Amino acid sequence: MDSRPTSLLPSPATLDLDKGKSHCGNSVVVFDPSVLQKQPKIPEAFIWPRCERPHQPEELEVPVVDLKGFLEGDAASTSRTAAAIRGACASHGFFQVMNHKVDAAALHDALRVAEEFFELPLSTKLRARRRPGSTWGYVGAHADRFASMLPWKETLSFAYDYSGNRDGVVDYITSKLGEEFQPMGYHARYLTALLIVSTESCMTTCDRVETCMQEGAPKELSLSIMELLGISLGMGRDYYRDFFEDGSSIMRCNNYPPCQEPDLTLGTGPHSDPTALTILHQDQVAGLQVFAEGKWWSVSPIAGALVINIGDTFMALTNGRYKSCLHRAVVNRDRRRRSLAFFVCPQADKVVRPAKELLVGRDGGVPRKYPDFTWAELLEFTQSHYRTDASTLQNFTHRTGMNKDASQMEVS
Ligand SMILES: C=C1C[C@]23C[C@H]1CC[C@H]2[C@]1(C)CCC[C@@](C)(C(=O)O)[C@H]1[C@@H]3C(=O)O
Ligand SMILES: O=C(O)CCC(=O)C(=O)O
Ligand SMILES: [Fe+2]
Question: Which terms does the UniProt entry file under GO BP (predicted)?
Answer without folding.
Answer: gibberellin metabolic process
